[in-house]
Each structure stands twice: as structure tokens, then as C-alpha cells.
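About this split. The held-out portion is used to measure sequence recovery: a designer receives only the C-alpha cells and must propose an amino acid at every position. Recovery is the fraction of positions where the proposal matches the reference. Here is one held-out target exactly as it appears in the evaluation file.
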């Protein structure tokens, strides 16, 4: 993400990042941005036009190393590329001239047919010093201690040996940025530190006559640990820095550790399963005396020769292979010291035919208005793998145990198994709840993110990873929209950004709540902790004494409150924004007081939702890096949770451009244009503007800024808020992008579009009655940049119409009428899972752990999907057996199938502008879509439930897509009798050729007849 020069030029040790706590980004994402967001702008032309690429040799053991590359926009070098030269121990390097290019694409090879091509994606590198180590890209010079970039050593007797703990920051590269007392700072990012022993890096620097130094640490990619903005003050001699704790005159932390020379055991039970031209390789974990850190998978076969890929899991998905080709896979384990195991026994497969589907990891990239959306809570939809089910700490209390209904029940495997069910209903896009590793007492829904860089293992299975789901959906022509959260983390913080070390007292009263500590256990949501026998774990959140570095005010002192069980509550027993538990630089430190006030964008919603300081560069980089990972996997769009609680300036400056830049970088400009981003701007009011507050109204977020604000994001947010509030509702921008001009379609003006589309909250609020939803919805459309992209639904996992806490219970006829409106009016129709059978109608949508999930609107749906189903096309089922056949036979399911058939056949219903000019009738409108490039011209007249008369329309022959009725218009007027509640008429103008009216589409059903 690009930042303003003012922001880039600030000195990074205390000002550039304003960091607090451990500021480690968990893992660099492959194809990282070309320049770290918080590094200074380079001052020389050479830094802009060359790249020095360092490649780690420690785990490769090749006899030669070549860099095969192409400057951005240029041609590839001839195979095998240019030979790299020795740089320092375990590294080779090559400096590449780039001309005017801003980076390069690259792969590495030994020159004899073995390649590291980033699992088939190639590496996307920028300029300056770049390291590539086991699939991780960073920006630094790993040989700084051995080359000409060594800082000049001052004369004098004093030195400082600095050891820095890496176990909790997860950096693969560490730089020491320092100045001796009274001296000058090193150039950013500083000098590289070298591996000392497991979990530690070190560097000895000359101080001259100085007795100490000021220091900060960074990963060379813009992520800093600068002691909460204060820098570290270190003395001469040996000093350790671990978790912000400085120990002077320390013992050498590596002195007692023998060098690790023992290699891991070879992986066993290696299996390879083939599906078309994709292979999933699995194996049993290897063992090691100090722990396995990763695995190397070597593939041989095919025309591309030998390819080596690194992974940290025991499942590897290899896609995009050649058809009808034999492949052989072996696996080696690698430990932290770089010891490599013997090769596993091989697993061999032969691929099948290549499907007529997009390449893996590539978004479908078509206009999102073509794709009706089916919304699922993944953990509640369908259970394909019972081994990843988890009940959590509230399993018994909630009543879920009595129903044998763990909160984490559905999974990606179950969703993959029922893709044909969703396709058979006619949906071509699936909106899924957040996939990142969650952490709370009741986290099945996905909105309590803890590790934003890790997919929650309670959703994955062997052969059914998140990538497998994306690829399986794409193979069926279906999109995946991922729900993402930028506003908050879990109450446990965000791993890799900040996690509280302790915020509870474990005494006799609280031993039932806080697990016994297990320092060797890392929470992952799935693994059973051996001491407690539980997969949920809070042993890392308590201390018998005030923890070192505590920032929570009054830690451990008794309060006047007790728990429901009658136990005394201590200060800091539970997360709070106002107690000092969370650092102000990274988290906001207040509760929301006014939901339509400025504080709703900068304070906590709930104690389970620790509110990110999204105006902080470190937080922005953490989130952008995380979501880049999922863009790279090929998702087709993002649903932005709690979008209204982040200032529009932050969206427009940081997060939205970052999404566009990443998609463009990976997949091209057209894919970026069609990457669908829609925000939950929750405005639960029936008026056009949210209680007069433009800053809290849904349509406000679809616009770019129209003022110049401070370069500081926090100040800019306040300036924008005040400016737009003063402008008021009457002075907001307007648009005609959704409206016809007479009967003519016109090219929309998207030049002022922010990049965020919206959920149509006004229609949602009024869907107690379809007529109200229609009139309220169109009343807001001139204030939306382009309302044809609005996401329209009746109810969701949060609320029903009019902010009801229950699932919609208006009746089958009302549901049919709502659907007929949604599928033919502007916007993208969206259905919450189960509404096709009025699932759980009238039931409370969510009551947390106070009642069983089975009694709520989030109940398990898979019982209705048992059996087999095969879809021959969208809205068409070729076979169905068992309970799923009964589900598909229900009236609303039949209604949906035909609505989707009709909408798919009439472009005007998908992407058209609309007008009610010259039309009598309650829910009646005309729509048109014209595209000169494709020769498409589609014009349709629609009436829902009631009669309508259309005047001033083009003369010609019109055919109804519902009945097949034909009407010839000669005087510009067409009259349609009322079709009945839930029914509709769609008269399409026959323009001949490819724009001929389709006539009757599908067979008559319970409502469309």
C-alpha cells in the first residue's frame, strides 16, 4: 500500500510506526508488496531501478543457483536465468537492473531442472534489498555484517552484544537499528542480526567510548519493535531483549544450548490423492528433538522438471498440473537449525483430464451483479468431517451438549459436498463467514479473530482446506465472498500484533475458569491441550503475581463485583478498553457512548471485540498483509464486517486501495474491477439518512473524499467527520448511475466511487412488506454511487426486518413476493441459508450461550441436506435423493430455481438501470442494460404481484419470461393485469438476433405461473 511522502519520511524508530508491545507481523505473505509501507523513500535513483535479490541456500543444498526473472512489463530471461553469486554463509545474491520497472517476477533453479517457483505462482519482488527464504519474502540485507554495508566502527574500547528473542515475533529476518549514546543512528533498517540459537538472534556492535546505545528492532519489511515508541536503552556488555524486557549484564542465552545437529525423522504415510489435474499430498508429522518447523515437498514428473515447495502443514495441495501425467512426491522435514530429514517414501499418482475450469487460485473475475448470493454460517451449514467438531467452554452451559450439537459443526468439507445443492438452487456466489482462527468462549461465527494469518482448523480437513473450497467452487463456476473484519480482534488480542500476556488472577475461586499453564502449548482451536484435556485454552491469560510489563491499572486488586457464581472479581479479570490492558497505539481505549457519534468509529462495541486503532500504520499493515493472503488464494470478493465503525478516510486511504492494488498486482485490472467489496454499514433506521448523521449512513461509504485532510490518519478522520457533518445531508453527492434516462441506458460515472459497495440496509429494514422495501430502497438510490451493486437481503445472521431479533416469519406468500422483487429489481439478491424452506422462522436468531443453538436462527442446517444431489446447471438439478430431495421440492426452493433461471437469461435484470417514469402500479419498473462492446441490449418491463401500465415505452414485440405471453406495442403503451402475490411478469422487448426475447423461461411453479 502506498503512503504519502510525509508519512514515509518520518524517522521509523519512534514515529514511523508508533508501535506498542511486540510488533511482529506473524509471517510475511508470499508476493509481498514491493516496498514496505513504513520504510523511508529511497533517496537515490539506483535504489529505484535495481533489485538485489538474496536467496537462502540453507535448506536447498543445490550445486548452483540461478535467478530466472522478468522486470515488470518486460521479458523473461532465457532459462535457466542468471547465475547467482555467493553473498555470505547460507545466502547467494544477484543485483538486477530494472530500468523504469517497479519490480520483477522471479523463480529460482539449480540449472538442472529443480525449481522453486513459489508453488507455481512465481515470486513477485520489488526494488532494493530483497530476501527470499523458504517461500517468505522480506526486505533487508542478510549479509550486512559481512559486506560493505557494515557501519563504520568507532574507535574505543566498548562493545555491546545484543540478543533479541524471536520466538514471539515470528520474524525470519531481524535488523538492529541503533545509535551509540551521543552518536548517529544507523541507516534504516539498520544492520542484520544473525542466528544465535533456537529463538534468539544476536549482534555485537562497537560503541567507541560510549557506555550504551539506543536501539529498535525491525523485520526489514516495515514492522518494528521500538519499545512502545520509546526505543530501547541498552548498556555495553551482553544484553538480552525478550518480550520488551531488557536484561543487562545477562548470561548468554545460548551458552547452555548445544548446537542442534540432529535431523528430524523422515515423514511417514505419505499419500497423494488426485482429482483431475490437482493432487492433495498428506503425511504424518515427523518428530525432532527440538521441533519440526516446516516440510519440503519435492515433485518430479511432467515437463516442468523437479519442483521444491515449502509448507508448515502436513497437507499440500498441488494444482494446475498437466493432464494424464505421472507425478512422484517425496517429503522431508526441516527443523529450526536447518537440519533436513531423510527423504520419505514416495507417493505416485497420474493425473486425469484437465477440467474446463479456471486455474486454481484465480478469481472468476466476472461482473458481480450477475451472481445471486447464498450466505452461509460455515460452522452451522453442513458437517463433512466430524473429527474437527468442537463444542468449546460453553458446550454444556448452552445446552448444545444435550443436543449433541457442537458449535463448530459445519466445515469446508461439508460445504464442498453441497456446492451442487447451492448451484441447483441457482446461486453462483457464496458468502461465507470469516475463516481466520477465532478465539473466544463462543467463536463459531468467526467474528472473534485471533490469528488473522491462519485459517481456523475447525473448518478444514485433509483434502478440504480453504484453498480446496475456493478451487472446488470455481470449478463449478461459483464465486466465494469471504467475510472479513478490519474493526476488531478477539478479546484475546491479535496474534502477531498484540496479545495480552495476563489479565486474570488464578486463586482457589478461579481455578475452575483458568486452565493450568502449559508453556509449551500453542492455542490453535483444534489441538487438545494435554493438561486440561480441552481444545479451548486460557492458561496463558492469568498470573499469580502482577506480570512483568503490566499496563493494566490496579491489576489484581479486588473489586466490589462478583461473578454469577459469586466469586470475587479482580481488576483486570476481563478485557476492558479503559483499564490499560491494550496499548493505545494499537487499540482504541474507550466504550461507544453514542452510536451515531464520532466515538462509534473509535471505541469498543463489546468486551469480546477489542477495537483496533485502524488509524495506526502498524495495525493497517497487519490487516492488509493478512487479507492479501486470501486475495492471493483467489477469493472473489470481501464482505466488510462492521464497516461503519471505521472512518471513511481510513477505508478510502488505506484498506480499499490496498485491496485494489493487490488484486491488480496478482490478477490484472479487470479482475480488480470485478473483485466485489461490500460493506456492512449498519444503519437501522427507516429514513434516508441515519438520524441526520451522514457519517453513519450506508450510502456515504460508497464515495471518495472531496476534501483535503491531514496526512495523519487519526486527525484526518476527525477533520472529515466534522466537515461532512457541517455539509449535512442536503449537500452530499448524488448519482444517476442506477437510473435510466427515459428508456435509454447510459454509461455510469464511477470516477467518484470509493471502492466499497454496500448492503442495502434500508430495504432490509422494510422487508416486513415488499412494497415498503421497494419504495424505501429506491428513495435512497440517488445518494448511492451505484445502487445496481447493492446487496439486498430480507434477513441475516444478525437481524430480521425492522431490526427484529427473529428470523423472518411473514409467511410463504410474503417470502415469495420478497424474492420476486429482489430477483428483478436493481441490486444483487442474497439469501441467508435455510430461508428457501423458511428454516427456523420466528426463532430468535442469536442468544449466545444462554440457549442451545438448535433453538435459534443459527441452528444446524445439514439435517435438511442429507442425501446426494447433482446440479446440471444453475437452477437445474439432474438428480437428488434422500432428505435433500425433499428440501429442493419445497415451494420456495422451486420459486428460487425459476427466479434464478429468469434473471440469468435477461441481462437487464442483472446489470440494468431502472426507472418508474410513466408507469402506474405499486411495484412496477422498467430496466435496461446496453453494452456496445458485446452487442448486448436488453430491455424489460417488470411488475411484482400487482397490475401495471407502462407508457412512453419503445414500440415492438414484448414476450413475458414467466408465461410466454406476447404483446405487440404500437402506441408506446403496455398494460399488464395483476399476476397475484409472489408472482410477477417480465416482458422483454424482442430486439432480434442475440438480443431476441427468450419467451417463457422454465416451467410453471407454485408462484411463477
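Reference sequence for scoring:
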Amino acid at each position: 500500500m502506498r503512503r504519502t511522502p510525509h508519512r514515509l519520511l518520518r524517522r521509523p524508530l519512534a514515529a514511523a510506526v508508533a508501535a506498542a508491545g511486540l510488533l511482529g507481523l506473524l509471517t510475511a505473505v508470499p508476493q509481498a508488496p514491493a516496498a514496505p509501507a513504513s520504510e523511508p523513500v529511497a533517496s537515490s535513483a539506483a535504489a529505484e531501478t535495481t533489485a538485489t535479490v538474496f536467496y537462502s541456500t540453507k535448506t536447498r543444498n543445490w550445486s548452483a543457483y540461478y535467478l530466472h526473472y522478468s522486470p515488470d512489463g518486460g521479458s523473461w530471461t532465457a532459462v535457466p536465468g542468471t547465475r547467482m553469486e555467493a553473498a555470505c554463509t547460507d545466502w547467494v545474491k544477484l543485483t538486477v537492473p530494472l530500468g523504469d520497472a517497479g519490480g520483477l517476477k522471479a523463480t529460482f533453479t539449480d540449472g538442472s531442472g529443480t525449481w522453486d517457483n513459489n508453488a507455481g505462482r512465481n515470486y513477485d519482488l520489488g526494488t532494493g534489498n530483497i530476501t527470499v527464504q523458504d517461500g517468505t519474502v522480506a526486505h533487508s540485507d542478510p549479509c550486512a555484517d559481512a559486506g560493505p554495508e557494515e557501519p563504520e566502527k568507532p574507535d574505543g574500547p566498548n562493545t555491546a552484544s545484543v540478543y533479541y528473542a524471536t520466538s514471539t515475533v515470528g520474524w525470519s529476518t531481524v535488523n538492529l537499528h541503533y545509535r551509540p549514546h551521543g552518536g548517529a543512528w544507523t541507516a534504516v533498517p539498520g544492520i542484520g542480526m544473525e542466528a544465535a540459537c533456537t529463538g534468539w538472534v544476536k549482534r555485537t556492535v562497537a560503541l567507541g567510548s560510549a557506555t550504551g546505545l539506543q536501539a529498535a528492532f525491525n523485520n526489514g519489511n516495515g514492522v518494528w519493535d521500538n519499545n512502545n515508541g520509546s526505543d530501547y536503552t541498552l548498556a555495553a556488555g551482553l544484553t538480552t531483549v525478550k518480550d520488551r524486557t531488557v536484561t543487562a549484564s545477562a548470561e548468554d542465552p545460548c551458552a547452555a544450548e548445544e548446537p542442534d545437529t540432529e535431523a528430524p525423522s523422515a515423514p511417514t504415510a505419505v499419500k497423494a490423492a488426485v482429482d483431475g489435474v490437482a493432487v492433495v499430498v498428506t503425511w504424518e508429522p515427523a518428530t525432532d528433538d527440538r521441533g519440526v518447523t516446516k516440510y519440503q515437498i519435492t515433485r518430479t514428473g511432467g515437463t516442468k522438471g523437479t519442483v521444491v515447495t515449502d509448507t508448515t502443514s502436513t497437507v499440500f495441495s498441488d494444482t494446475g498440473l498437466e493432464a494424464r501425467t505421472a507425478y512422484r512426491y517425496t517429503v522431508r522435514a526441516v527443523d529450526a537449525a536447518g537440519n533436513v530429514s531423510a527423504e520419505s517414501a514416495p507417493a505416485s499418482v497420474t493425473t486425469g483430464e484437465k477440467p474446463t475450469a479456471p486455474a486454481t487460485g484465480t478469481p472468476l473475475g466476472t461482473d458481480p451483479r450477475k451472481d445471486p448470493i447464498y450466505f452461509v454460517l460455515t460452522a452451522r451449514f453442513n458437517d463433512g468431517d466430524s473429527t474437527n467438531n468442537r463444542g468449546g467452554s460453553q458446550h454444556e452451559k448452552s445446552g448444545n451438549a444435550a443436543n449433541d450439537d457442537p458449535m463448530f459443526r459445519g466445515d469446508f468439507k461439508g460445504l464442498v459436498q453441497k456446492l451442487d445443492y447451492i448451484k441447483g438452487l441457482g446461486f453462483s456466489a457464496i458468502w461465507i463467514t470469516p475463516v481466520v482462527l477465532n478465539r473466544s468462549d463462543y467463536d463459531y461465527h468467526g467474528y472473534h479473530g485471533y490469528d488473522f494469518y491462519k485459517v481456523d482448523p475447525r473448518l478444514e480437513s485433509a483434502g478440504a482446506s480453504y484453498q480446496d473450497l475456493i478451487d472446488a467452487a470455481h470449478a463449478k463456476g461459483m464465486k466465494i465472498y469471504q467475510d472479513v473484519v478490519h474493526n476488531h480482534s478477539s478479546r484475546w488480542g491479535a496474534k502477531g500484533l498484540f496479545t495480552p500476556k495476563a489479565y486474570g488472577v488464578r486463586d482457589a475461586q478461579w481455578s475452575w475458569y483458568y486452565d493450568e499453564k502449559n508453556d509449551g502449548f500453542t492455542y490453535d482451536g483444534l489441538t487438545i491441550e494435554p493438561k486440561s484435556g480441552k481444545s479451548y485454552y486460557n492458561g496463558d491469560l492469568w498470573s499469580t503475581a502482577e506480570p512483568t510489563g503490566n499496563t493494566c491499572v490496579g491489576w489484581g486488586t479486588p473489586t466490589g463485583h462478583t461473578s454469577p457464581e459469586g466469586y470475587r472479581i479482580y481488576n483486570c479479570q476481563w478485557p476492558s478498553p479503559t483499564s490499560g490492558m491494550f496499548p493505545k497505539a494499537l487499540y482504541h481505549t474507550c466504550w461507544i457512548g453514542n452510536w451515531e457519534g464520532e466515538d462509534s468509529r473509535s471505541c469498543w462495541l463489546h468486551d469480546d471485540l477489542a477495537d483496533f486503532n485502524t488509524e495506526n500504520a502498524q495495525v493497517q499493515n497487519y490487516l492488509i498483509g493478512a487479507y492479501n493472503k486470501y486475495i492471493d488464494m483467489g477469493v472473489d470478493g470481501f464482505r466488510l464486517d462492521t464497516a461503519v465503525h471505521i472512518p471513511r478516510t481510513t477505508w478510502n486511504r488505506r484498506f480499499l486501495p490496498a485491496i485494489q492494488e493487490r488484486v491488480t498486482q496478482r490478477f490484472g485490472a479487470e479482475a480488480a474491477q470485478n473483485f466485489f467489496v461490500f460493506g456492512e454499514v449498519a444503519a437501522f433506521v427507516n429514513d434516508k439518512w441515519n438520524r441526520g448523521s451522514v457519517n453513519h449512513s450506508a450510502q456515504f461509504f460508497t464515495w471518495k473524499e472531496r476534501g483535503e485532510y491531514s496526512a495523519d490518519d487519526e486527525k484526518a478522520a476527525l477533520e472529515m467527520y466534522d466537515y461532512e457533518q457541517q455539509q449535512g445531508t442536503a449537500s452530499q453527492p448524488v448519482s444517476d448511475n442506477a437510473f435510466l434516462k427515459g428508456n435509454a441506458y447510459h454509461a455510469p460515472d464511477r470516477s467518484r466511487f470509493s471502492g466499497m459497495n454496500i448492503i442495502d440496509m434500508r430495504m432490509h429494514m422494510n422487508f416486513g412488506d415488499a412494497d415498503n422495501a421497494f419504495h424505501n430502497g429506491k428513495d435512497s438510490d440517488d445518494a448511492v454511487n451505484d445502487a445496481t451493486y447493492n446487496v439486498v437481503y430480507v434477513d441475516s445472521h444478525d437481524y430480521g426486518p425492522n431490526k427484529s431479533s427473529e428470523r423472518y416469519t411473514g409467511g410463504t406468500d410474503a417470502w415469495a413476493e420478497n424474492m420476486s422483487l429482489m430477483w428483478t429489481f436493481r441490486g444483487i439478491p442474497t439469501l441467508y441459508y435455510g430461508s428457501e424452506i423458511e428454516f427456523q422462522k420466528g426463532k430468535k436468531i442469536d442468544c449466545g450461550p444462554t440457549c442451545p443453538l438448535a433453538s435459534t436462527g443459527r441452528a444446524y442446517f445439514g439435517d435438511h441436506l442429507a442425501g446426494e444431489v447433482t446440479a446440471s446447471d444453475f437452477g437445474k438439478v439432474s438428480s437428488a435423493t434422500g432428505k435433500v430431495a425433499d428440501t429442493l421440492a419445497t415451494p420456495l426452493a422451486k420459486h428460487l430455481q425459476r427466479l434464478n433461471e429468469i434473471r440469468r437469461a435477461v441481462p437487464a435484470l442483472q446489470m440494468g438501470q431502472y426507472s418508474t417514469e410513466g408507469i402506474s402500479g405499486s411495484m412496477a419498473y422498467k430496466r435496461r442494460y446496453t453494452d456496445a462492446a458485446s452487442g448486448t441490449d436488453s430491455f424489460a418491463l417488470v411488475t411484482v404481484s400487482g397490475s401495471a401500465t407502462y407508457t412512453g415505452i419503445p414500440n415492438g414485440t414484448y414476450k413475458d419470461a414467466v408465461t410466454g405471453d406476447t404483446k405487440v406495442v404500437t402506441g408506446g403503451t403496455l398494460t399488464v393485469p395483476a399476476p397475484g402475490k409472489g408472482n410477477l411478469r417480465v416482458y422483454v422487448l424482442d430486439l432480434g438476433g442475440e438480443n431476441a426475447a427468450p419467451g417463457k423461461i422454465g416451467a410453471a411453479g407454485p408462484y411463477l405461473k
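Annotator remark: DSSP finds 17 helices and 52 strands in the chain.
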